[in-house]
Design a protein that fits this description.
2 domains; 17% strand; alpha/beta; 292 residues; 42% helix; Helicase, Ruva Protein, domain 3
Length: 292
């Protein structure tokens, strides 16, 4: 593949990058091969590829894995591959939107926890990350190409402006590892931003996640969303509007019971702090008190 070759294929097939789908096609095979190598794809693996596109990543994936299940939302691209039969024999192409696909059914098709490699539109990347978090128990790893700014949010530490909801919720179920930086010249059309490939490891369960123990994940999401929804406010004032606890005095008691200063801002809290707070608020919701 090359920049010109990619343009020629699209023109010949009567296709064009769709702004609605946010399509940016990989144009250099060596970049795709670097992604596959960095992802650690093994010969016996079944890999879920999200965003097959013209197959730039699919072909080296198929060469490294036992099987590739490719999800592609663009019906024109699916039609092209079906007519040309240009994908390797160990690739199963599915016309599907990854934000709508049945993840449990996908695990049955893959024969176990999902190993995902995704080069998907940046416009849906955050929503995609939340979908992975929602189904974390079904996933082994996800290697994802992201806008660099989004990747930095997932890697951000407390006290930084990039630290927020996606990073906190991901820390509750996975470990994030940066793999590769990818420049705009690797795509057609060229995006106006740099990209980064990251690995999200869900299983085996990372040690930090294991140490968190059991907690109410839906409640955690409500707490984290509420806390960062008004991130300039103190934790107490930000959470007071969520209605999770009956009144502000009880809420302050819950925060204190979790060994957190009510006047701190959300961006200062580690995932362990949020988990303790979720347990304290859960107890309050069940007993209508935060008293010891």
């Amino acid at each position: 593949m090359s920049y010109q070759n990619t343009r020629d294929i699209l023109r010949q097939q009567g296709l064009a990058p769709k702004k609605k789908l946010g399509q940016n096609f990989l144009v250099h095979r060596h970049t795709a091969e670097r992604i596959v190598a960095a992802a650690g794809v093994r010969p016996g693996d079944t890999v879920i590829e999200v965003g097959v596109g013209l197959g730039a990543l699919t072909v080296p994936l198929a060469g490294a894995a036992a099987r590739v299940i490719g999800l592609e939302a663009d019906s024109g691209i699916v039609r092209m591959h079906e007519e040309k039969r240009d994908l390797p024999a160990n690739v199963t192409l599915i016309h599907a939107d990854v934000l709508q696909v049945d993840m449990a059914a996908l695990t049955e098709q893959a024969g176990g926890r999902l190993r995902i490699i995704a080069n998907l539109p940046y416009s849906i990347s955050t929503e995609f990350i939340f979908r992975l978090i929602e189904h974390f128990e079904l996933i082994e790893t996800a290697v994802v190409m992201l806008q660099k700014e989004v990747a930095r949010r997932l890697l951000a530490k407390p006290g930084t402006k990039e630290y927020g909801v996606p990073g906190v919720l991901l820390a509750a179920c996975a470990e994030v590892t940066p793999l590769l930086d990818i420049g705009p010249a690797e795509f057609h059309p060229r995006p106006r931003v740099d990209s980064m490939v990251v690995r999200l490891t869900f299983h085996p369960v990372p040690q930090r996640v294991s140490r968190l123990g059991e907690f109410d994940r839906r409640l955690l999401r409500r707490i984290v969303g509420g806390a960062f929804g008004q991130r300039r406010k103190t934790l107490l004032n930000a959470l007071a509007s969520t209605g999770l606890v009956r009144d502000k005095e009880r809420l302050a008691a819950c925060i204190g019971k979790a060994a957190i200063n009510p006047s701190v801002r959300a961006e200062r809290l580690e995932i362990e702090d949020f988990v303790r707070l979720s347990r304290s608020i859960r107890a309050a919701m069940e007993t209508d008190t935060c008293d010891s």
